[in-house]
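Dear Dr. V.,

Thank you for agreeing to look over these. As mentioned in my earlier message, I'm a first-year student in the group and I'm still getting used to reading structure tokens, so any feedback on how I've presented them would be very welcome. I ran two proteins. I've put each sequence directly above its structure. The first is here:
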Amino acid sequence: MIEKQLCEQLFAAAVQSDHADEVFIVLRATDEAALRFAANVRDPMHQTSALSLTVSVRKGNRYATVTGNEANEQEVRALVRRAADLTSVMPDIPDGLPFPSAVDIPTAPLFDQYAPERIPAWFADSVLPALDDAVNKHGLLYSGSVAAGTSVLSLATSNGLFLYQPSSLGHLHVRVFDTNGRSTAFGERFHKEYGALDFKHVIARISETCRAWRKPEEIPPRRITTVFEPRALADMLAPMMRQFSRQAIEQEQSFLRRLDGSSFLGSRMFDERVTLRSDPYDQRLPSMPFTGDGQIVRPEHWIDRGVIAQLITDRYDAALKNVKPVAAPTNLVMDVADPVRDLIAETEHGILVKGFSDLNIIDPGNCLLRGSTRDGVFLIEDGEITAPVRNLLLRETPVYLLKELLAIGVPEVTSTTGNYFPMLLPPIRVKDVMYTQLSGLV
């Protein structure tokens, strides 16, 4: 764990340098302990540590960047000198921006001290009993990992900026298979306190889903009413939010671009029940309050009652267009008024989708996604789940989903699959979602 005082000492040794006009230093450090298991067999615990220093300098209109991995004053000064020497072979950039200046922001509540040596005991006391119970009861196979670690991101510039943010994260990643390999389910959780990861609940839930999805029925691909669970919605919203960018709009890579090249900022595009916002200081969804390039992440409304309310704007575009810079969100909240408690009970005919695999944008102009459902698809008839369904290939845009909402459920904390991007999202029910063919995925 790199302490704040050490970062201040390291940066002070370099940011005021005679070798360059401006200096920008970024330090990243991580310590992690992980336990992996496959086919119900546990590996020994692995521990890893990593540290990197990135030093950028400006000398006149020339910029250069170098990296190193030693946290001492001599190394930092040497990196500054090396970067300054490299500027002599770099091209002139007359419209370059000054490095970020001083700003005062609070530290986000991301850190919880943990002891790596306690993880094997926690795994033995909490994780293995849950696995063994499921194996003994249902004869299922489990693969996955449990990891916990701490990290530090700190940066400083010769213009007076200094930022320091420690964080910790526990990560639970489990896939369960039937012994014949024809049924599977997936569970994942993130939390800043690894002891708060409810492994028993995750195992019980995915075990039930795996057993329920045995011998899925085949239904014809078509437009059909769909209930999406929060994780499925998160996986669809993530690529959509990347298109909330002035740069993406200018490059014709966003559904928010009008035919004349302008944006839909300020226009109503979605159901008025849709409000999406972000706040790195939300205690339920702790996330980074600044980016690695020194941009501050502030609370923002991206969609306000169906209206496009904000766009991501980097420092260069902000200076060019004389607008304020807006960093990309590091979490996402969908505010819901009067949620429906049980979306399935009010569905006459449709399917329930729990997650996706390999969702990709195939048409950025309208954020059209293509990918297979996975980890549980079920037929809904007269308000009840009646049968498992074979996986289907989705061909749809989240823009349509947020326009054609039939109902919104109770939000819960989730994240995009495989990455920590915390979201508070509800399940939703949408009419006429397009599925084009059967998928061969299990």
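The second protein is here, in the same arrangement:
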Amino acid sequence: MKKMWMVLAAAFVLAAAVWGAPAQSVAADKIVLGMPVRPPVMVHLPVFYALDNDIFKKHGLDVEIKFFRGGVATHRAITSKKSGLDAAWVPAPIAMVGITKGSGMKFFHSMAFLNEAQMAANDQVKKPADLRGKTIGIEGRGGYSHLGALAVLSTAGLADKDVNYIKTPPPARVPFLLKGKADAVVIHVEQVLVVKKRKPSFNKLMDLWKAMPNFFYGAFIAPSSKINSNKDAYVRFAMAMMQSTRSIYKDKAGYLKSANKWVRPVYKKNPEIMSKTYDVFVAEKIWGVNNGIPKASVSFTADYMKRLGKIKGKVPSYEDIVDTSVTKSALAKAGKI
């Protein structure tokens, strides 16, 4: 841990000339950003930490947030010409499938590529094998929670045919589990802590980032046409997000301040949950500090979606999915750590 802080500190010194430049030195660009779920989940807070600490402004950006009902809805919005979005944070697998269908999108940064989620279950489910015949709450086939469920099932040699599914929108997953409508659900770290607080006999069944370590969680995407028309703005957005995630690793107090401002009231009433969630993220290195789009994760997830039948035809290459001109330029300017 000490070594990580030393590396981060060195990176801050190297990047000071870039990140310390006044906002007036670059043109102010408006970026309308789509985010899933309002209030935001805690893994998404680097965006809001950047807003609260004027990090976007320091990079000459005026970022406006629009919220949608989950990752699928956010992806649907960014691919619609009527939404007015310039970028969006979406589940990476869904975006990959969309790209193969001609959505015209490209990944240009990720603040968290590890699959930040856990499966929680009632006290009848002690291990993944116990899920056979049980009911799992998901938002829909092929969605984020369904893919997470499959990751856990696969560790016990189980598949869709071995379980039952019930449709649960993201805000309903915790209530469905607590009220017995579902035996297990895929939810975020802070939500699992809420479940455990209310029903201590319930279990955290598995960390998804361990069940499938190369599975790609989420990415910022944008239409290729918009990136090409104002590439420098997207480069600066990626740099701002790198500054935000790097800062958060050293600024628990600042992170918790943003969390207390943005997240759901249940966490504000239980600040120990916010603190424990942060500690998990830091220990597991959930947030990326560079461009956040490793080739191994892109390749694995594209191949996985092909095996599931979600990608038809040829599996897309890394360059088909990622705008490397943005990722390389932003990383070169921010400095790799």
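From my reading of the second output: Confidence is low (pLDDT under 50) at residues 5-18, 20-26. The first helix runs from residue 2 to 19. Does that match how you would interpret it?

Kind regards,
E.
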